[in-house]
Specification:
The protein is of the alpha+beta class and 764 residues long. It is built from 33 helices and 22 strands. The strands form seven sheets. It has a five-stranded mixed sheet, covered by helices on one side. It has a five-stranded antiparallel sheet with strand order 10-9-21-20-19, with helices on both faces.
Length: 764
């Protein structure tokens, strides 16, 4: 045809080339359209758009305390998007958004020819909001030289289909829910919560401009890392809004004068509020989801399906508990290190350090490569920049693996669990001093000897067996089977004095606790412990009276709830229900409270009175004298052998809290009892928490609550002297009075006459 036209050869060849290029372009476009470069989602698939959504963990009052996600995304509705946020986006990213059908033809032609003819990947300017949405949802693939063109054509096809399915408001909503922001954050709601700790609907004009400005380059304009650069970009957005009449110039200038103020909240598993608690929730929810199916018969995914997990945690109490723990542990750590000085076991005990080294992943990897111990140790002495935990703030130093282990061995750790006794609902959960560096959860994973916090169980069993509160026992030491002779830690007790049960428990006399156990019967005490919810192994030996059994905080806390909850122990629980993203209930969970009391109401009142005496005049008096607490509090301190573990149980009418403090390595204890006793190591965490709660009216229902007075019958049972001296002749000729003889199972030969007479002990 061209040959019949009277045109010059140059024009003919130009037309041939042009038509060939158009044909090639059409073929190229067709190859993309029909999926030769990768399948393009159909209209039907686009109607069912679903994106991975973060599962949210909420506190008891609906506060967001954490999320589980691959991409941090929280979808919201169009109604939750403030108008100035929408206007900021349109003014900055797509001023003709409401005029085009997803493709801005003028801009697209410019980009298309620049990309093909000039190979200019930075041509830009053609991405409408709808095109960006297509990219946000489906991403881009690497197709080599023409990759940018292929991706843009695919996005154009998808954008056109999206515009045919969704109206402009729906497209804006989809865009804001999928657009990536800094710090692995997807969607405007997640970004708003992360950078400003507020919902999208609450964003101010300046805050909205910061987030929209971030879209140009999420890393470069990250306000956390580059605040000044982010502020300048924010100002560009504000001036764009003024340029396109979304703002008056005066308002734009006023907004520009404001400082950039962040309230950054990181919801990563390692940081933020209650990280140990959130990790436990993650484990439990994952197991629960394995038993549930969606309407398509598939299992739910905690990282993808945007579930909502409701918990019992009180976010205000949790925050105060973490503060109380950190404040006390910082002081205690200093005492701990100073007490040892240069003779610290983490420095001098080679076995402790070497065992720690052998347990590391680094050691195991080198060992698997065939290196011997000496070669491995040589490798592990090589230094490199390492971030190290410190209460003054983490620091990076050039240290070896061995140096790092020695550094961490010195640190004490802590655990705290606070529950509502009536239901077992967990209100605060502190699993350690810092989840980033110490992943081991001392609430759910750790079992440690509980020391004297086991004594109330012994005394409870004794009262249930018929022992009277005014039964008297001598503080004198007795030797039992295998030559074991328990002694009292204070050493101030008169061995020739008899003490009633209240005084013996409140001052934590070891010698009397064992005598009470032996008279009650070890089997009866273990049975009582079982009824109070203790499931762990309990050795049937006399030393169990002093807490040589190893329990975790959940068990011990559950047992103590019975003293408030009419004798019925409550099992600590923390997940109340799980919903899908639309609020549909998937699973719900009820409190687990024992159906029958573990002991009588009389015993409960007596024991609570005993433990109030512990606070008012016994081993926990520093709650009153040092911390000035006037709340109604009962409690029990605990210290294990060689000061390895410190415990405190705090009981109020509506809260039971158990705290533990110690070193992760059992071989490292406190240097002395003055530092390591539960009253010094563990009690202050509870005390500081109560101080903080007393200052906030939010907690008045807990802090102002009062114990009910004991009944007249119980008051009469408790009416006796706290101690009385042994009869001289009984002591002289029999070595004990009637009460003591009843508890002297396994006792050695009676003391020699003259040694007894002058108060000297017969080592016998």
């Amino acid at each position: 045809m061209l040959s019949k036209l009277k045109i010059s050869p140059k024009i003919r060849w130009a037309l041939i080339i042009l038509l060939s290029l158009l044909a090639l372009a059409l073929l190229f476009f067709s190859s993309i359209y029909f999926g030769m470069w990768g399948k393009i989602p159909s209209t039907e698939e686009l109607r069912k758009l679903e994106q991975s959504k973060a599962t949210q963990v909420l506190s008891s009052d609906g506060e967001l305390i954490g999320k589980f996600y691959i991409f941090d995304r929280q979808p919201i509705t169009f109604k939750e998007l403030p108008q100035h946020l929408i206007e900021a986006l349109i003014a900055t990213e797509d001023v003709r958004f409401f005029e085009h059908d997803g493709i801005d033809n003028r801009s697209l032609l410019r980009v298309f020819f620049k990309s093909i003819l000039l190979q200019d990947e930075s041509a830009g300017g053609g991405s409408t909001i709808t095109l960006q949405l297509a990219k946000n949802i489906y991403g881009r693939k690497d197709y080599g030289t023409f990759g940018i063109v292929i991706n843009k054509v695919q996005e154009a096809i998808i954008a056109e289909r999206l515009e045919g399915i969704y109206n402009k408001n729906e497209i804006l909503t989809l865009y804001f829910n999928t657009v990536p922001f800094s710090d692995n954050t997807y969607g405007i709601e997640s970004a708003s919560m992360k950078f400003f700790n507020k919902h999208t609907s609450e964003l101010s004009l300046e805050e909205a401009a910061v987030l929209v400005g971030m879209l140009k380059a999420s890393h470069s304009y990250n306000p956390r890392i580059f605040p000044e650069r982010s502020r300048l970009r924010r100002d560009v957005v504000l001036m764009q809004m003024a340029r396109y009449d979304y703002l008056s110039e005066e308002k734009a200038l006023e907004a520009k004068r404001k400082d950039l103020v962040l309230d950054y909240r990181n919801y990563s598993n390692n940081k933020g509020l209650a990280p140990y608690f959130r990790e436990q929730v993650r484990k439990d929810v994952s197991k629960i989801l394995d038993t549930l199916k969606n309407i398509e018969g598939q299992s739910y995914n905690i990282y993808r399906d945007g579930l909502i997990v409701h918990t019992t945690l009180d976010h205000k109490m949790q925050k105060l508990a973490e503060e109380a723990m950190r404040e006390h542990m910082m002081d205690l750590q200093q005492q701990h290190e100073a007490s040892y000085g240069d003779n610290a076991p983490w420095l001098k005990n080679k076995n402790i350090l070497e065992d720690a080294v052998k347990g590391t992943e680094s050691y195991q990897k080198l060992s698997s490569k065939g290196l011997n111990h000496q070669e491995i140790m040589q490798e592990l002495r090589k230094t490199k920049p390492t971030e190290l935990f410190s209460y003054d703030g983490s620091t990076t130093k050039n240290v070896s693996v061995i140096d790092s282990l020695s550094h961490y061995l010195k640190f004490l750790n802590a655990g705290m669990l606070a529950v509502q006794p009536e239901t077992g609902a967990v209100r605060a959960w502190v699993g350690g001093v810092d989840f980033r560096y110490f992943k081991y959860d001392h609430v759910s994973m750790s079992k440690r000897q509980v020391g004297s916090t086991f004594k109330p169980i012994v005394y409870t069993a004794a009262l249930e067996s018929g022992m009277e509160p005014c039964s008297y026992f001598s503080a004198e030491e007795v030797t039992y089977e295998n030559g074991w002779t328990p002694s009292n830690s204070s050493g101030s007790e008169d061995p020739h004095m008899n003490y009633n049960l209240k005084t013996a428990l409140s001052t934590s006399m070891n010698t009397i606790a064992v005598k009470v156990l032996m008279e009650t019967g070890i089997g009866n005490v273990i049975q009582e412990a079982r009824q109070m919810g203790i499931a762990s192994d309990l050795p049937a030996v006399p030393s169990i009276a002093l807490g040589t059994a190893s329990l975790n905080l959940e068990e011990l806390t559950g047992a103590y709830t019975s003293y408030i909850n009419n004798g019925r122990p409550s099992e600590p629980h923390y997940i109340t229900r799980i919903e899908d993203g639309n609020g549909n209930l998937l699973a719900s969970f009820e409190p687990k409270v024992a159906s029958t009391p573990a002991y009588s109401e009389t015993t409960r009142q007596v024991m609570l009175n005993f433990m109030q005496a512990t606070v008012n005049e016994g081993t926990a008096t520093r709650l009153r004298s040092t911390y000035g607490l006037n709340n109604d509090i009962a409690g029990k301190t605990g210290t294990t052998q060689n000061n390895k573990d410190g415990w405190f149980v705090g009981i109020t009418p509506h809260l039971v809290a158990v705290t533990w403090v110690g070193a992760d390595d059992h071989r490292i204890g406190f240097r002395n009892t003055r530092i390591g006793q539960g009253a010094n190591s563990a009690l202050p965490i509870f005390a500081r928490l109560m101080q903080k709660m007393n200052q906030d009216p939010y907690f008045n229902s807990i802090t102002n609550a009062r114990f009910a007075p004991v009944s007249s019958e119980v008051a009469e049972m408790l009416d006796c002297d706290e101690k009385k001296r042994n009869g001289f002749f009984k002591r002289l000729f029999s070595g004990s009075d009637k009460d003591e003889e009843a508890t002297s199972e396994g006792k050695k030969e009676k003391k020699g006459f003259f040694k007894r007479l002058f108060g000297k002990k017969d080592k016998g």
